[in-house]
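so my prof wants the structure for this chain in the tokens format not the other one, which i didnt know existed until like an hour ago. anyway here's the sequence
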Amino acid sequence: MISIAIDGPAGAGKSTIAKEISKILGFVYVDTGALYRAIGLYIERHNIEDREIKKELSKVKIDLDFKKDGQHVLLCGEDVSKLIRTPKISMIASRISAFKCVRDFLLKLQRDFAENNNVVMDGRDIGTVVLPDAEIKIFLTASAAIRAERRYNELRAKNIYCSYDEVLNDIIKRDNDDSSREIAPLKPARSAIIIDTSNMSLQESIKFLLKVVKSKFDRGSDLYESK
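here's what i got, hopefully its the right format
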């Protein structure tokens, strides 16, 4: 099985780019951030305090369902794919991602997918912790202002109300939280290729990443050109 790990800060375009690359290559796309968001939604719904999270995790069941329109997240049997995409759940997910019990809870699930499928997996610590032996590791980033603008437009397109300033402040806080936490902090893996997409369009970013894939695997070119 082949694994492509894509890490980077919030709003860097990881999910959108990873989805497109996985389609072109015929790989399974796994959005690991959605798993943390699902736990965040569970915590928010049940008013669970931080000190209670570890024992409550035994009640949480998360599954991934891969349909034609992409990955769907099931929380205790309910499709919560849209419900987990709010700024509030994003903040909860970022906060609890610093908890070792939460990361341990999701680690096996993520690795199981990679062991049984060719995957493009994105998150914060895929190349450093989840899939340290991934064949390709990419660290995708962009300026905070650009990332906030992209996320703002994405939320508005989904009819989720928010202001640009709220999104920018959220991005800045999450950057600080993700990079300063003790457990699995956000940082490029040693062998990661760092790509700044601030001045790239979506299509330019996808094309560039595909070149990286093709340079690593001889068959990457065949996969790309056959689609």
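also thought this was worth mentioning. Residues 220-227 have pLDDT under 50 and may be disordered.
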